[in-house]
Design brief:
By secondary structure, the protein is of the alpha+beta class. It is built from four helices and two strands, in the order αββααα. The protein has a domain of 84 residues. Strand 1 and strand 2 form a beta hairpin. The protein starts with 11 loop residues before the first helix and ends in a 13-residue tail after the last helix. The model has no long low-confidence stretch (mean pLDDT 83).
Length: 127
Amino acid sequence: MTKIWTPQERTEWEKGVQEIEPTDRARPLPDGRIMRESRLTLSPEWMDQIWKGYRCAVCLELHGESFPETCRFCGFPMKAEQRRQLEQDFVGQQPPSLAGFSMEREQAYLEREHYMKKGSVTPGKEL
């Protein structure tokens, strides 16, 4: 008898980081190298932890206390710099998609609601 494969429980990282997209942004590292940045879509729980200072804004590691002096994993000065880092990096919140509707239906709705008629040019009477 063969066993049916079932997905394993998701890791904490997979629950917290919902999507990773490349961007055109980059930041210089302390040693002079340039590091490309990605846009992360984080779970609401992780965003709450970051804004409250329990999760590092740079390496996303969880801490037991709010706003420790430095991140024990990457050394980022959380207490002094976390808010500034969030203001610089935070792009915004996107509303979650509605459950139960297909992507085609969502796309058709957006096209209907946000379609802008383009102007047209008619030839003059001389032609």
